[in-house]
Amino acid sequence: MDQKLFDLAKAAMEQAYAPYSNFHVGSALQAENGKLYSGCNVENAAYPEGCCAEASAISAMVRDGARRIEEIAVIGGGDGLVTPCGGCRQKIREFSRPDTPIHVCGPDGLKKTFTLNELLPDSFGPENLE
């Protein structure tokens, strides 16, 4: 994982708006165009209606016209692994390949790297609708 990707995810985590859960998450991805995009979780009073960090980063990528994730980093606090939630795994699936690396990080760095297929095996995707 590139240090810039980690640094961007960590900076995004620091900007998270999480007054209800107090659980800050950041994400950064590199798209096929070489650009980096980031996002953070954003909660609201109608908790749990909010936006996950991964979804925010994907939205920024799509808004810029890119459509393929080359790799993505997710960072959260605590001792355990902060992997993407089920909904975000599906969102990542929409814009990546089965072997796309998903880097799970803590504030001190990389904890573990998974492929999308490891986190979401036998997944449903656009090709299932053809």
From TrEMBL:
Q: Which reaction does it catalyse?
A: cytidine + H2O + H(+) = uridine + NH4(+); 2'-deoxycytidine + H2O + H(+) = 2'-deoxyuridine + NH4(+)
Q: Provide the cofactor list for this protein.
A: Zn(2+)
Q: Which InterPro entries does this chain map to?
A: APOBEC/CMP_deaminase_Zn-bd, CMP_dCMP_dom, Cyt/Deoxycyt_deaminase, Cyt_deam_tetra, Cytidine_deaminase-like
Q: Is Hydrolase a UniProt keyword of this protein? A: yes
Q: Which GO terms describe its biological process?
A: nucleobase-containing small molecule metabolic process; pyrimidine-containing compound metabolic process
EC number, as in UniProt = 3.5.4.5
The record's annotation in Gene3D superfamilies points to: Cytidine Deaminase, domain 2 (3.40.140.10)
Coiled-coil positions: none
Record-linked Pfam families = dCMP_cyt_deam_1
NCBIfam families, sorted: cyt_deam_tetra (TIGR01354), PRK05578.1 (NF004064)
Q: What does this protein do?
A: This enzyme scavenges exogenous and endogenous cytidine and 2'-deoxycytidine for UMP synthesis.
Q: By what name is this protein known?
A: Cytidine deaminase
